Amino acid sequence: MRYFVLSIFFAVILIISSGIYFFFNLKNYSDKPLDYNKTEKTIHILQGQGLGAVSQSLTDAGIITDPFKFKLIARFKGLDKQIKAGEYLLDSSMPPLEILKIINKGKVVLYRLTIPEGYSMEQIAELVETSGFGDQKAFMQLAADPVFVSAKGFEGKTLEGYLFPDTYYFSKNTSLESIITAMTSYFKSVFTSKWEERADELGMSIHQIVTLASIIEKETGAAHERPVISSVFHNRLKKNMRLQSDPTVIYNIKDFDGNLTKKNLQKITPYNTYKIKGLPPGPIANPGKKSLEAALWPADTKYLYFVSKGDKTHEFSTNLKDHNKAVRKYQLSR
């Protein structure tokens, strides 16, 4: 009987010892990287991929050593049901527990997408495609979908003008809807209630301000001239003069080759501000913050004309006689 009790006692001690050893061994595994030489690998976790497949992929990539222990840690920590799909940049110097936390929090690789000020919706769509975020045609279709545009709360027929220029960071599996939403949401954060009140003071809608800002953006070569160029257009609108802006004409020309002809200027279209009075029906580009501010707060001038000097700046005039003189000096002489 005594020997039986001792056998049971030693068996229990052995089981407890084994459990303690296993526990500390597992903890040591969870906190210790495979090696301390940083060997980065890109790991793709697919939608619906289970922990077993993920742990095997990490093992095959040389990021972890023991897929079984990796799965045990995940289960003990309650992280086995929260694997998020995406592209991850992992390396062998990361402890397994840190790797688990990264893929549970969805800390995927983010890629930069920079939208320059003054880009049109079509140019942005092309940039989105060349940057690997989605199809250009699909982007254009979504940004011109009346239901989608209306849901975003904008007045225009498309989102032209409301895709705010900035640097964004997205994962490669980010949907086009999410990318567009990020841009339009940024626009709304920039166009504050104070700006809305200022638009009301000017007797203009937000859409009209954005349209004017887009023209200012395309006409401006030197940043400091934005408020002055804005004043020219505001003064013309007050006098019911045509805006006569080349960029508005160009916007309506498909596959523009860089040569603005007399025929182009004479063709009547909703965007030809040489033929129509007032603003075109919508923005011709996506303006940045400075151009929006210039549209809202123009300089106090009496200028009605401007002509390029050829160095990105302009010569401004209050009357046609002086303007024609400037044209001869800066344009015809060349």
Describe this structure in words.
It is found in: Cell membrane. The chain has a two-stranded antiparallel ribbon with strand order 1-2. A hairpin with a 5-residue loop joins strand 5 (305-308) and strand 6. It has 15 helices and six strands. By secondary structure, it is mainly alpha-helical. The chain is elongated, with a radius of gyration of 31 Å. The chain has three domains: 30-105, Endolytic murein transglycosylase (Dna Ligase, domain 1, 2-Layer Sandwich); 111-190, no CATH class; 193-303, no CATH class.
Descriptive tags:
single chain, 334 residues, mainly alpha, two-stranded antiparallel sheet, 15 helices, 6 strands, 50% helix, membrane, transmembrane, Endolytic murein transglycosylase, MLTG-like, EC 4.2.2.29
Largest sheet: 2 strands, antiparallel
Share in helix: 40-55%
How would you state the average pLDDT, rounded? 89
Low-confidence stretches: none
SSE string, helix = H, strand = E?
HEHHEHEHHHEHHHHHHHEEH
The termini sit apart by: 116 Å
The Cα radius of gyration reads 31 Å
Approximate strand percentage: 5-15%
- Tell me the total number of β-strands: 6
Summed up, the helix count is 15
Number of domains: 3
Biggest sheet strand order reads: 1-2
Coarse morphology = elongated
Overall structural class, as computed from helix and strand content, comes to: mainly alpha
GO molecular function: lytic endotransglycosylase activity
EC number: 4.2.2.29
Membrane topology: Single-pass membrane protein
Main location: membrane
